[in-house]
């Protein structure tokens, strides 16, 4: 098995395994979109009111890959960008953050996706996307790095790559390769309604691959959307409508309040770590990176509630630290920073 370049100490997650089995590879392969976010130079304004914008790397699967690497884990990103300055900049950012980018492809006919994102004064995010079509939507199955996928301990993805062909078929093919190779399939819903043709299309598209995942992360708002308006805090709603017999772990992120977890044997809540928020961008991705970085080298984590709660406390701290700085990728914490805040919080 080829070695994937990782940051130093990539195996230093053994402290969480407590005798849990180590896999041959603790590589997490993240599949999907990477794009440029344009963020207003001042916060609390609409996109129209913003006097200027700063560019920042974005895209949830890429953020997760960097989050894992920053924690000392081993990660790779598979996706397509434009053969343009922005696309090459994104590939370089991954490389600089010790993420294996050998699965990236560059499209000569389509641009790297752009998104204008603003945090309005009520704290809600507003998005305007430029992707008609953007390079990420044009990844073909023939362009997949099959060997890289086969090495994954965890294969992680979202739902944006399910919206348009050919990327949708490529996504499904990549999942099938990973599943056959024994990878854990990890799914972060990451609903972006403006990108879907309609609400029904979004609901159907997101649920179309629900049954195949081993691990799913969903937010309270996404539960309400997917269940047609049900109470996201009701365990019965979650268990009856969203839990599946083959699902190993369902995580519900609750922002500053922490998270809930559901497995086939137990369920519970892990409180959040209190911080002063500056920018919530990337918090959910940092949380996902935190839990996957531990699960990758302790694949039976979901069977032991004590170990799982400890790992989720770690993941909550990853999310909390990310909101204390601007941007997603620059704000992703190191393992030392996480341990430090957990000491203070206990």
Automatic annotation (TrEMBL):
A cellular component annotation (GO) from this entry: cytosol
Enzyme Commission code(s) on record: 2.7.1.4
GO process annotations (BP): fructose metabolic process
Catalyzed reaction equations: D-fructose + ATP = D-fructose 6-phosphate + ADP + H(+)
Gene3D superfamilies: 3.40.1190.20
InterPro entries associated with the record: Carboh/pur_kinase_PfkB_CS, PfkB_Carbo_kinase, PfkB_dom, Ribo/fructo_kinase, Ribokinase-like
UniProt keyword list: ATP-binding, Carbohydrate metabolism, Kinase, Nucleotide-binding, Transferase
Pathway this chain belongs to: Glycan biosynthesis; starch biosynthesis
Highest taxon of the lineage: Eukaryota
GO molecular function: ATP binding; fructokinase activity
Carbohydrate kinase PfkB domain segment(s): 27-334
Top EC class for this record: transferase
Entry similarity comment: Belongs to the carbohydrate kinase PfkB family.
Reported function: May play an important role in maintaining the flux of carbon towards starch formation.
Name by which UniProt lists this protein: fructokinase
Organism this protein belongs to: Deinandra increscens subsp. villosa
Record lineage: Eukaryota, Viridiplantae, Streptophyta, Embryophyta, Tracheophyta
């Amino acid at each position: 098995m080829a070695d994937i370049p990782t940051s130093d100490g990539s195996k230093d997650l053994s402290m969480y395994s407590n005798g849990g089995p180590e896999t041959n590879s603790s590589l997490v392969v993240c599949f999907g979109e990477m794009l440029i976010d344009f963020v207003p130079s001042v916060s609390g304004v609409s996109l129209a009111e913003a006097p200027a914008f700063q560019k920042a790397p974005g895209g949830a699967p890429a953020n997760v890959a960097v989050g894992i690497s920053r924690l000392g884990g081993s990660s790779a990103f598979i996706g397509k960008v434009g053969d343009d300055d922005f696309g090459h900049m994104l590939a370089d950012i991954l490389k600089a953050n010790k993420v294996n980018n050998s699965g990236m492809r560059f499209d000569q006919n389509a641009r790297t996706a752009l998104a204008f994102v603003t945090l309005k004064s009520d704290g809600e995010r507003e998005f305007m996307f430029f992707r008609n079509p953007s390079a990420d939507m044009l990844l073909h199955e023939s362009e997949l790095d099959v060997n890289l996928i086969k090495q994954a301990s965890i294969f992680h993805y979202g739902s944006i790559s399910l919206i348009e062909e050919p990327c949708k078929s490529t996504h499904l093919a990549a999942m099938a390769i990973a599943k056959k190779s024994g990878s854990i399939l990890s799914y972060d819903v990451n609903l972006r309604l403006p990108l879907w043709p309609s609400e029904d299309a979004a609901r159907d598209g997101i649920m179309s691959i629900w049954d195949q995942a081993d691990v799913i992360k969903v937010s309270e708002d996404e539960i309400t959307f997917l269940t047609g308006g049900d109470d996201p805090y009701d365990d019965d709603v979650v268990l009856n409508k969203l839990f599946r017999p083959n699902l190993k772990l369902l995580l519900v992120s609750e922002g500053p309040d922490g998270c809930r977890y559901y497995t086939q044997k137990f369920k519970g809540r892990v409180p959040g770590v209190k911080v002063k928020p500056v920018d919530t961008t990337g918090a959910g991705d940092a949380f996902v990176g935190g839990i996957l970085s531990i699960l990758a080298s302790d694949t039976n984590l979901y069977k032991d509630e004590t170990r799982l709660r400890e790992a989720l406390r770690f993941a909550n701290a990853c999310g909390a630290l990310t909101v204390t700085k601007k941007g997603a990728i620059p704000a992703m914490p190191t393992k030392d920073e996480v341990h430090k805040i957990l000491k203070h919080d206990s």
